[in-house]
Amino acid sequence: MPPYAHSKGRPLPKGTLRPKVNAQVSMQLAVIGANGQLGSEVVRAAKDADLNVLCLEHAQCEVTSDASVTAALETLKDGDIVVNTAAFHRTDECEVAPHRALAVNALGAYRVARVAAQRGAGVVYISTDFVFDGEKQTPYTEDDTPRALNTYGITKHAGELLVQAANPRHYIVRIASVFGATAPRAKGRNFVDTMLTKARARESPTVVNNLVMSPTYAPDAAALMVDLLRRAAPFGIYHLTNAGACSWYDFANAIFRLSGSPVRAQPATWHHEDGKARRPRYAALTSLRLGPLGLATRPWEEALAEYIASKLA
User: Fold this and answer.
1) pLDDT tens for residues 61-91?
2) Is 152 annotated as catalytic?
3) Which of 152, 238, 249, 282 is catalytic?
């Protein structure tokens, strides 16, 4: 049983189509951003599931170009799925380049979904916890109404809406604070690796303690996503972060503790500054839709321990 799986789930709500294992073994899964932090794990999970995978890196598929997307997805057919992991997610940079954020996160997402629909294929769009404003103070579910605070979140929510409008066979997958073996192309290193570097140097970093999120281990999210596709799960929105929530300060100290380091972070309070993107103070996510399918994400602490063990091996 995969690490995220739950052996039993609540019955599906009345009126919901019961998922079934997809017998169409010839289904092709096209992954845009196949060499990225999440995309590389989606490719790995899909191959482990014996799916036919089409790997599309940035050079093969530029989501801001009609011609590029059309050419990249020309082999899609009825029943195939395209997973779109392309994003402009440098949050503060989105504030000074909103045109780029809109072009990639919203219009690019629409373009991919539309071309997929023209070929009878479904689409998975990767979204974020930043579509919420953080005022709820309890974990956000798939049924909560987005209200983004910054350009990144606004353009990702716009992408969600445009994908839903362009392709009825859609999955909106929200994740957050991702860590995994492949370094994020835009950021260079994930937060866990950055803290492990601090630990080796015996440096005590200052980390904000008033921003709460739900970490996402990329292999867990990818494996669960592929399983949803193979099960032909109902289309819609799914939250695939690991279970639980923590502040960045608590996350950092968990990294130090699990790595056996004596280093500990120093707490700091995050304040909005001019020119910087506003952040939701409480952006934890949870899922109402996995349980009825007999699935659940495992706790972030468990996933983090596995990742750190792999890094220290």
Assistant:
1) 999 999 999 999 999 999 999 999 999 989 9
2) yes
3) 152
